[in-house]
Amino acid sequence: MIVVTRRGVSDAEIDRIRERIEQLGLRTHISRGEHRTIIGCIGDEARLAEASLLSLPGVESVTPVMKPYKLAAREFVAEPSRVRVGNAVIGGPALAVIAGPCSVEGRDMLRTTAQSVKQSGAALLRGGAYKPRSSPYAFQGLGVAGLEMLAQVRAETGLPIVTEVMDTRQVEEVSGFADMLQIGARNMQNFALLSEVGSVQRPVLLKRGLSATIKELLMAAEYIMARGNRDVVLCERGIRTYETATRNTMDVAAIPVLKRETHLPVIVDPSHAGGRADLVAPLSFAAIAAGADGLIVEVHPCPAEALSDGDQSLTLEGFGRLMEQLQPFATAVARPLGGAATSPTGTAAA
Amino acid sequence: MIVVTRRGVSDAEIDRIRERIEQLGLRTHISRGEHRTIIGCIGDEARLAEASLLSLPGVESVTPVMKPYKLAAREFVAEPSRVRVGNAVIGGPALAVIAGPCSVEGRDMLRTTAQSVKQSGAALLRGGAYKPRSSPYAFQGLGVAGLEMLAQVRAETGLPIVTEVMDTRQVEEVSGFADMLQIGARNMQNFALLSEVGSVQRPVLLKRGLSATIKELLMAAEYIMARGNRDVVLCERGIRTYETATRNTMDVAAIPVLKRETHLPVIVDPSHAGGRADLVAPLSFAAIAAGADGLIVEVHPCPAEALSDGDQSLTLEGFGRLMEQLQPFATAVARPLGGAATSPTGTAAA
Amino acid sequence: MIVVTRRGVSDAEIDRIRERIEQLGLRTHISRGEHRTIIGCIGDEARLAEASLLSLPGVESVTPVMKPYKLAAREFVAEPSRVRVGNAVIGGPALAVIAGPCSVEGRDMLRTTAQSVKQSGAALLRGGAYKPRSSPYAFQGLGVAGLEMLAQVRAETGLPIVTEVMDTRQVEEVSGFADMLQIGARNMQNFALLSEVGSVQRPVLLKRGLSATIKELLMAAEYIMARGNRDVVLCERGIRTYETATRNTMDVAAIPVLKRETHLPVIVDPSHAGGRADLVAPLSFAAIAAGADGLIVEVHPCPAEALSDGDQSLTLEGFGRLMEQLQPFATAVARPLGGAATSPTGTAAA
Amino acid sequence: MIVVTRRGVSDAEIDRIRERIEQLGLRTHISRGEHRTIIGCIGDEARLAEASLLSLPGVESVTPVMKPYKLAAREFVAEPSRVRVGNAVIGGPALAVIAGPCSVEGRDMLRTTAQSVKQSGAALLRGGAYKPRSSPYAFQGLGVAGLEMLAQVRAETGLPIVTEVMDTRQVEEVSGFADMLQIGARNMQNFALLSEVGSVQRPVLLKRGLSATIKELLMAAEYIMARGNRDVVLCERGIRTYETATRNTMDVAAIPVLKRETHLPVIVDPSHAGGRADLVAPLSFAAIAAGADGLIVEVHPCPAEALSDGDQSLTLEGFGRLMEQLQPFATAVARPLGGAATSPTGTAAA
User: Fold this and answer.
1) Do D313 and C52 touch (CB under 8 A)?
2) Which residue, among A3, A45, A50, A309, would best test binding to B if mutated, counting the most B CBs under 10 Å from its CB?
3) Residues of A with CB below 8 A from D328's CB?
């Protein structure tokens, strides 16, 4: 932590600032400039995060030096982490593609979709049973019936399933069906939920909040990891900006920045980032080129009749084409496209 | 809903779009231009919100016409709503001021603060027992012990209490102590939590999300109201922008826009909006001038030692000064400053 | 400037960083922490701004300590500056209101507007002769004919005139007519233009750029002042954010922040900030309450027929009402509403 | 243009709205809903853009249907445009890479850089002679001396040169030296400058403004094209968002959106987008993968001693490595990497 004083700070004020810092167990290092004084704080910065140094007379600014996350930090883990989800791996040599409908709308559409995306090369199946919808009047998902359909389709296809959990009270139930728990963008700072999924043994797909900084995303991962669950995959899904030409603004630079800052795998959701089916392919290419470990893509047998997010869903054929078009980019980054299911049994079914 | 077609759309495509809309029970009205065709959709637009018209061939854009919120909408309720919280009223003729510490840190600091802010003219007491913190390593609040302290201090001072609820599993417990449940900015789109507080009989203070639009804030209120709880107070607390000179950017225009769009009371949190104690006064003046129904202000006996948000907390004296300085602005908007507690018993204590 | 090194930096790297800083004429002060080292740089920071310290091996972050503006900084000028424009003063005890049409569309509409806003209490007349329009096909202003109309109406009413200059080649010409030169939001970082208006003897109204930080606004003022022209008035006019309910987001906190950082007067443009006539009044009240020194308001005899910005223009009666409604807020901040013209001659006409 | 009325609009109000629209030469088409009425406007929408329909009683919203740009629009030009710059082509089959120092700092560093980037495969040389700097005290470029150095190095290497023009008064002079005129991000809505470069016969590299929408970028291109100069290349260089981990947020989706909306070539500036040398490579890969026609990259023989933008500049070796690493991505998009200079003479030298 670096404390900079106001112009014209008094010696007594500097003393009081120094005392407060030392009282918290840190050492101080004082550099007096012509107009301002810089006070470097050496030791466990976490103790200072709680202290309101800015409210002390004479303080102009306070700048943290240490990163506030530890378990998620690259500097504390030598190797990139691999997260195993059923028989798939995210963060390994292969690029992992998760595909499926926004919502589970029925058994048949789910089965059709799963079989098709599997054949096209998807390694995991996504599908929402509990849906966060901005209107209370919109379709909210099939709930437990949807979870059962997901489990059955996993048994049939061998694709591990990824599904969202929205409420601390659902975590146990959803963990009984799903191979991977998704935390949606709107819940990225739902700290109660983060703690809850941190205490079960299911990998977590953590989506970046609509206006979360990269640092906040890492802090959210830290919440989960601090409770014991180290299997976290981060997902860039577009951030909110002033631009309205796309649903969100995909922050492609977040991929290399995260790769530098953390050992956790990073995937991208091109469907939500762009919000239109015709943007899914170019955004997927960009994500892979920038170093992402995989993708999560919305696919629906008939997007025009989808109960949610149809505008951004690919058709089954569209997804097949995407996977073919991705191949040259997978080659360019020297990673196979797959991470795919190899046997017809997922984790939870085992 | 207005559908605009792409340049060069075919008649067959237009027919298919029209059929899809009529299939959903709406009437269509077609205006053919030189290059594009406009299809107006008349009837219950909610049914269209589900439909993914953008995925139909020939569609260029889809624009909603109706507002997606009903219970919260000004056009369905003639009079501004008043929300009674214990013996205080928000949205009535008087300006209501909620004050207190960010977190309840102990009985003495809470009592001292409550007595002081009451004397200065606050009508309600705030204080966090469960605290959403961006780091898992930061102070997370005293929990139920904090709730008990709040209830006791209410019994002593008569100030109704406002406290945050973060988890669906806490709603019943917190409702047993608090006069008003606060939904924090990070939970504004925690739909499970919104539904849960919608089904208890406690007024709700709903804070705008960090990057929520005004429309999304109203939809979040609609979630609560749709479950039966009509006592919702909205709170502008600053939004996230590129500007770093302040912690958030207070969207002062949200106040008149909300007043036009909804009948619900609107208050402002100048402490979080600015993030520095020295900005609390000017932002409070601006909020009242722009038409806010009240304020929620962080006050701490010793901000430099606060366990959270000390940088933006006023001292007890500072809050007293603020209330004095607010007087001329209350006069300017012709509203008394108070809405204040009149007897030493709050709702839940009754 | 504070330089923080990466974890695991070598002594040789620290030496090289230190040498580079000292080579530029600054002293260094080194604090070694457990994992990182902090290097404080003492001396003329401006020399470091040029240096690319981040590109040196071992450097993780570089944080400036000094403010990059000097002439505009509050800390170098004891008293708030007053800017005299013709017979009006901005930044003095009185609140100054500038009013008039977006564009000068003709002599009659300008005269009618000027007489009316003067009677309602405006101190200065605004009107665009050169208009920045986002479409090359939109009305671009009357040019020199518009300037002549402004000068004539000044002669008739005594109101000093404020008009925009868009091109370095226009500065001399516009200065021959106008009492105050306006730099529009889109030109706030048109450095050639800033330098040019910095070298004439006409006060400048500098509007904040659509996405300019407060610091960048002050640096733009510094550009003008560094060339010799100290008569700069800053104008908050809303910034660009994700919110679409209003044309821009008025950053009301910018007013007290600017008041703390600079001695220059600060006014607000509620017409552009909100983009709708019905928001002008509440935003004006908020601006005055937060400490603004005045307002600039768009007024048109018949907004529905305005050639530009009609949606946000007040009618003549609407402006009269606004001035009446502002009175209680002027009283609340203990400043008279006026700064108004006292004689029928402006500067340039003298 | 689609006009939606307020709830409870009167017939007289609807009539007045319709009359106003028809008075401007358009036809109307009225759809009456239960609560609101939709008025479609058919004909030349540009005439309506001037009209302030929102200020008419009864109007709730006004939504444009037509695109406001014509010359830049994809729908009016069948084929993607190719822009010839000296002996290079941007927008042709090959990916064009522009490289060079932020500022021309001297003849030797420029020559060294030019020879090196040419050998590594760059097709054009960039270098600033006039530099927009946010501080008036920072290095402002060598001016005409810098232009002469650029011309000389072009003569020696055959690389066409790209350099920024900041002032309408410089356009003629700079056009005498440069093969391509760059309009910087801060001048994207400097309409006087856009008009001026629109009337010379030099290709223009138009950088997207810091917070410009894609539509505004296209309107800026339209300004240039409307004056007769059709040789415009668009450049995505990152936009301003709340995220501070990178200097700007590269809007990678802007590439496919622009490709859909316009026939003009689109290149990307990964140096400014990320603001750090280590982000240049991944952002370049993403840009090419998403469909960009080329890149503009900052390169400096010794970044740590650069007079501007050293933090984001590649070394000569770093640029060589980048070009090698780009090869697989060029292969993936099936475009050769080059567009390169084939003879030692540029346009202006001819």
Assistant:
1) yes
2) A50
3) 331-334
Average pLDDT over residues B11-34: 85
| Burial degree of A63 (CB within 10 A; 0-12, 13-18, 19+) | middle
| Average pLDDT over every residue of C5-27 | 87
Contact (CB<8Å) A2/C7:
no
Contact D162, D124 (CB under 8 A): yes
Kind plus residue range of the DSSP H or E element containing D62: strand D59-63
Q: What is the secondary structure of D124-149 as a DSSP string?
A: EEE-BSS---SSTTS----THHHHHH
Q: Looking at the whole model, is its pTM more than 0.80?
A: yes
Say if residue C81 is exposed, middle or buried (CB neighbours under 10 Å; 0-12, 13-18, 19+).
middle
Find residue A299's DSSP bridge partners.
Answer: A314
Asked if the D83-332 domain carries CATH number 1.10.10.60, the reply is no
pLDDT digits (tens, 9 = 90+) for A193-241: 999 999 999 999 999 999 999 999 999 999 999 999 999 999 999 999 9
**Cβ contacts (< 8 Å) between C241 and chain A: which residues?**
242
Gap between the Cα atoms of B326 and A236, Å rounded = 44
- In chain B, residues with a C-beta closer than 8 Å to the C-beta of A134 are 68, 189, 216, 219
Length of chain B equals 350
- Contact call for residues B129 and B146 (beta carbons, < 8 A): yes
Nearest CA in chain A to B56: A304
The third-level CATH classification (topology) of the domain covering C2-64 is: Alpha-Beta Plaits (3.30.70)
- A246 contacts in chain D (CB < 8 Å): 253, 257
- CB pair distance less than 8 Å for A251 and D273: no
pLDDT band at D333 (very low <50, low <70, confident <90, very high): very high
Q: Select the residue from D243, D261, D331, D335 to test the A interface by mutation, using most A Cβ atoms within 10 A.
A: D243
Tokens matching residue B321? 């000064």
Cα(D19)–Cα(D11) distance, integer angstroms: 12
Domain boundaries, chain A: 2-64, 83-332
In this complex, do B257 and C279 lie within 8 Å of one another by their Cβ atoms? Answer: yes
Are D249 and A249 within 8 A, CB to CB? yes
Identify the closest residue of chain C to A239 by CA–CA distance: C242
Question: For residue range A17-68, what is the model confidence (pLDDT) as tens digits?
Answer: 898 888 888 888 887 877 778 887 877 776 776 677 888 888 888 877 777 8
| Residue A237 burial (CB count, 10 A) | 23
Residue from A26, A53, A52, A54 nearest A40 by CA: A26
Q: Do D135 and C306 touch (CB under 8 A)?
A: no
Contacts C–D by Cβ distance under 8 A = 142
Count Cβ atoms within 10 A of the Cβ of residue B92 and give its class: 0-12 exposed, 13-18 middle, 19 or more buried. Answer: buried
What sign results for the dihedral spanned by CA atoms D188, D191, D193, D198? positive
Question: Per the structure block, which two tokens stand in for D302?
Answer: 């010794």
Tell which residue, D231, D235, D222, has the closest CA to residue D273: D235
What HEC string does chain C produce? Answer: CEEEECCCCCHHHHHHHHHHHHHCCCEEEEEECCCCEEEEEECCCHHHHHCCHHHCCCEEEEECCCCCCCCCEHHHCCCCCCEEECCEEECCCCEEEEEECCECCCHHHHHHHHHHHHHHCCCEEECECCCCCCCCCCCCCCCHHHHHHHHHHHHHHCCCEEEECCCHHHHHHHHHHCCEEEECHHHCCCHHHHHHHHCCCCCEEEECCCCCCHHHHHHHHHHHHHCCCCCEEEEECCECCCCCCCCCECECCHHHHHHHHECCCEEECHHHHHCCHHHHHHHHHHHHHCCCCEEEEEECCCHHHCCCCHHHCECHHHHHHHHHHHHHHHHHCCCCEECCCCCCCCCCCC
